[in-house]
Design a protein that fits this description.
6-stranded mixed β-sheet; 18 strands; alpha/beta
Length: 506
C-alpha cells in the first residue's frame, strides 16, 4: 500500500472516503472535523449529541454525503479517552481498513486518531499503519480464481492537524512500513505449504532477502552440519529426502567490536511428528512449524531496513520432520554441537533438538543476548491459549525488555518458572538429558532442555505455539486475518529499536 501524510485541511472531493475516529463523550467537532461537518450540515454533531453514534471502540457509522464530492465519511469509535492506547489504534485502524475494503474502493484518508492525547504521535501513526496494512493482508498466491470485481486498497493518506507533527508523520510511516514488510515476509513464509517451502527453498529465500537488504548470509549445508556434529539437526532430518540447512544472517549496524544480539528461530517446514506421528486431524497446520524461523528472517529484514545501531545475528535451523527407513527413533542417543548428548523419548519433540544445535552454534559469536522463538509445545497452548506467548529466561533484564516490548506491541508474553526441579524431569539414564520430561509441565521441561545449551549467556525462549497462526479459539483482532500472524517481528523489532547493552554483559 502507498501510505503518505498530509496537513488536515478540508477540501471537498480531495478524498473519496475519510475516516474519523471519535472518543466516547467527546467534545463537539472542532478543527478539520468541524470544517467537514459544516459542509455536511452538522450531521456528525447531531449523531454525537443525540447519541446515535456512541463512539464505543470499533463501532462504525457510515455517512453518505449527498451533494458533496467527498463521497463517504466513516466514523469509528475509539472508546474512552482515558483508556486510549496503541492497541486501540491498531484495532480501530484495522477495522476501518476492512470497512473500506467492503466498500470496494482503492483509497482512503484517515484523520490521526487522538492527536494531542497522552499517546505519542509517532506511536499513533505507526499503529495506524500497522492496523491498516496487517488487516488487509491476504495469502492467495495459490488460488486460480480471484474476484476481479474486487479492488485492492492500495492508497492511504494520514491527515495530521498540527504542523509540527507533519515531519514526525513522515518518519513514522517509513519506520512502520519497514516493520510491516518484515511481518509480511514472516507471514508469507509461514503460510507457504511444505511442498512450496522446503528447507532448500527457505534457504534460497533468505539468501535473496540478504542480497536485497544488505545482510551477510551463510548457508550451512548437510555436509557442513554433519562435519560440525550437529546431531540434533541431522537426526530430525534423517527421515526426509530434503537435506537440512542452517541459515545464518548477519546485520552489522554497531561498532566493529560490539558483541551481537542473536535471534534463533525453529524452522521445521513440515512436522509430521516422525515415528511418534501426530494425529491426522489438523496436521496440515504443521506447515506453520517454521514460524519461529520465519519471524527471525522477517525481523532481520526489518532491522536492516531501519538501519538500527547494533549488531544482530539470525540463526535458523531448517528441516522437515518426516518418517522413513532412515528416521531417528525413540531410544536413539544424539550428540549435539559442542558434545552434549540426549536420549530421544519422542520424535515429535524435535524442535528443541534443532534449537540445541543452533543455540550452541550461536555461542561462537559470544553474544550480548540470545532470544529464541519456536512453535514448541502444545502444553504452552493449553496453559495460555492463543492470547500470549510463553516466556522463559535466565536473565531478568532481558526478560523485562521483552515483556515491555510485548505490552507495547500487543504481542504479549507471560513468564513461566524455570526452577531446577523441572530439569530433574529431563535427566536420562543413558545420556546427559532426554528430550521430554513427561506430560507434567511440558512447556517448562522443553525450555529446561534448551537451557542446557545456553551456558551463562543472557537468554529468553519464546514458545509461540499458540500465537503463530490464527487458530479456532484465537481472540479476534482486526489486524490478524486467518493464517500466519508473523508474531514476534513487531515485538523483537521494538525491543531492538530501544536496545542498549545489557548491564550484566557490558
Amino acid at each position: 500500500m502507498n501510505i503518505s501524510s498530509e496537513k488536515a485541511e478540508f477540501k471537498d472531493g480531495k478524498f473519496e472516503t475519510v475516516v474519523i475516529g471519535l472518543f466516547e463523550g467527546a467534545d463537539l467537532p472542532s478543527g478539520y472535523v468541524k470544517q467537514l461537518d459544516q459542509a455536511l450540515g452538522g450531521t456528525i454533531e447531531d449523531l454525537v449529541i443525540n447519541r446515535k453514534f456512541k463512539c464505543t471502540l470499533n463501532q462504525t457509522h457510515l455517512i453518505y454525503t449527498r451533494g458533496m464530492k467527498t463521497g463517504r465519511i466513516l466514523l469509528i469509535g475509539l472508546g474512552k479517552y482515558d483508556q486510549f492506547n496503541t492497541e486501540k489504534v491498531r484495532s480501530a485502524s484495522g477495522n476501518a481498513a476492512l470497512k473500506i475494503k467492503e466498500y470496494n474502493t482503492n483509497s482512503y484518508a484517515v484523520l490521526v486518531f487522538g492527536e494531542g492525547c497522552n499517546v505519542p504521535i509517532n506511536d499513533i501513526i505507526q499503529d495506524l499503519v500497522f492496523g491498516a496494512e496487517l488487516s488487509l493482508y491476504s495469502f492467495d498466491r495459490y488460488k486460480t480464481k480471484i474476484d476481479r470485481e474486487k479492488v485492492d486498497v492500495d492508497k492511504l493518506v494520514i491527515l495530521v492537524n498540527k504542523h509540527e507533527n507533519f515531519s514526525i508523520a513522515k518518519r513514522s510511516i517509513i519506520a512502520a512500513t519497514s516493520v510491516v514488510d518484515g511481518v509480511k515476509v514472516a507471514r508469507d513464509l509461514s503460510n507457504m505449504p511444505g511442498n512450496y517451502c522446503t528447507p532448500t527453498i527457505l534457504a534460497n529465500v533468505a539468501l535473496d532477502i540478504s542480497r536485497k537488504h544488505g545482510l551477510a548470509c551463510k548457508i550451512l549445508e548437510s555436509r557442513d552440519i554433519s562435519r560440525l556434529k550437529m546431531g540434533g539437526l541431522m537426526g530430525v532430518s534423517s527421515g526426509s529426502r530434503e537435506p537440512p540447512k542452517l541459515i545464518v544472517l548477519e546485520y552489522r549496524g554497531g561498532n566493529t567490536n560490539e558483541k551481537p544480539v542473536v535471534l534463533v528461530g525453529k524452522a521445521v517446514t513440515f512436522d509430521s511428528g516422525g515415528i511418534s506421528i501426530k494425529p491426522a486431524d489438523k496436521m496440515e497446520q504443521m506447515k506453520h512449524d517454521k514460524s519461529g524461523g520465519t519471524t527471525v528472517i522477517g525481523t532481520m529484514q526489518a532491522v536492516a531496513d531501519l538501519k538500527l545501531p547494533l549488531n544482530l545475528v539470525g540463526i535458523v535451523p531448517v528441516t522437515e520432520n518426516l518418517l522413513g527407513g532412515d528416521s531417528y527413533r525413540p531410544g536413539d542417543v544424539l550428540t549435539f554441537y559442542k558434545g552434549k548428548t540426549a536420549e530421544i523419548i519422542n520424535t515429535d519433540a524435535e524442535g528443541r533438538l534443532i534449537l540445541a544445535d543452533a543455540i550452541s552454534y550461536s555461542l561462537d559469536y559470544k553474544p550480548q543476548a540470545i532470544v529464541d522463538l519456536a512453535t514448541l509445545t502444545g502444553a504452552c497452548v493449553i496453559a495460555l491459549g492463543n492470547v500470549a506467548s510463553g516466556l522463559f529466561s535466565n536473565n531478568d533484564e532481558l526478560r523485562d525488555r521483552i515483556v515491555r516490548a510485548g505490552e507495547y506491541t500487543g504481542e504479549r508474553v507471560w513468564e513461566f518458572p524455570l526452577w531446577k526441579e523441572y530439569s530433574e524431569q529431563i535427566k536420562s539414564d543413558v545420556a546427559d538429558i532426554k528430550n521430554t520430561g513427561g506430560r507434567g509441565g511440558g512447556a517448562i521441561t522443553a525450555a529446561a532442555f534448551i537451557s542446557e545449551f545456553v551456558e551463562n549467556y543472557p537468554w529468553v525462549h519464546l514458545d509461540i505455539a499458540g500465537t503463530a497462526w490464527v487458530q479456532d479459539n484465537s481472540m479476534g483482532k482486526s489486524y490478524l486475518p486467518k493464517g500466519a500472524t508473523g508474531v514476534g517481528v513487531r515485538l523483537l523489532t521494538q525491543m531492538l529499536q530501544n536496545w542498549k547493552k545489557l548491564s550484566s554483559n557490558s
